[in-house]
Specification:
The protein has 240 residues and is an alpha/beta fold. The chain is built from eleven helices and twelve strands. It has an eight-stranded parallel beta barrel, surrounded by seven helices. Strand 7 and strand 8 form a beta hairpin.
Length: 240
């Protein structure tokens, strides 16, 4: 059974979704805590939370929202956005994150990322691999690096990474379907990787396609907020 991980993206303390990572294409959906509670009621156990203000500012901004959700729900939270220093990663863990997703630092400071991986362990560090036109994108998707996806993954799989959150940016927030061929290529190369697919999910059918492709986990958000996937459908999938 594929692990279902709803996403809550935060700007200004509110739950939002962007389209293709564009901060100018923002839709606001309300209070993060209320949404998190709804997910928990549906039987969801894990939440992917992204500090979009932090990603843009290059340091954590919305730690209080993380602290509130972690203290008022039993959800296991993986947190990303703005984690650029050891102080940032400490703030995330102290605010209640069980895991953190780190992408930009893995590109700009590989030694620091590898040190975090050794210090906290591969069960708490998720490698963020956000892809646009085959290249890894950084800093809130505002910059494309020179890193190609598969060599980038190899470097860190060899260093001990076990979990990767891979977002196809051109799909994100579009409800256009996930990049299944991309995930198949990754899993063909690294079959033991705990790959978390992200971007484009529009329906339960899309989730089933990912499951059939042997993708271990999926992050999705807009499909829920736009009513394309009902929480009762998630409950059914979880209980299957």
């Amino acid at each position: 059974m594929i692990e279902l991980i709803p996403a809550i993206d935060i700007i200004g303390g509110q739950c939002v979704r962007l389209t293709k990572g564009d901060y100018n294409q923002k839709t606001v959906y309300g209070e993060p805590l209320e949404m998190a509670r709804e997910f928990e009621k549906a039987g969801i156990e894990r939440l992917h939370m992204v500090d979009l203000d932090g990603a843009k500012s290059k340091h954590i901004v919305n730690s209080q929202v993380l602290k509130q959700i972690s203290s008022e729900t039993n959800l296991t939270i993986d947190f990303g956005g703005g984690i650029k220093t050891s102080e940032d990663i400490d703030i995330a863990f102290e605010s209640g994150a069980r895991m953190v997703t780190v992408g930009s630092v893995a590109v700009t400071d590989p030694k620091l990322f590898t040190w975090w991986l050794q210090k906290y362990g591969p069960d708490r560090i998720i490698l963020g691999a956000d892809v646009r036109n085959g290249k890894i994108s950084i800093n809130g998707w505002k910059e494309d690096s020179d890193e190609d996806l598969l060599p980038f993954l190899k470097r860190y799989v060899d260093a001990g990474v076990r979990m990767v959150l891979c977002t196809e940016i051109s799909k994100d927030g579009t409800l256009g379907g996930p990049a299944i061929d991309l995930y198949k290529r990754v899993l063909d190369r690294y079959p033991d990787l705990y790959l978390i697919a992200s971007g484009g999910v529009s329906s339960i059918s899309d989730i089933r396609k990912l499951e059939n492709a042997r993708v271990p986990a999926v992050v999705f958000g807009k499909a829920i907020y736009e009513g394309k996937i009902a929480l009762k459908e998630l409950s059914y999938l979880i209980k299957k």
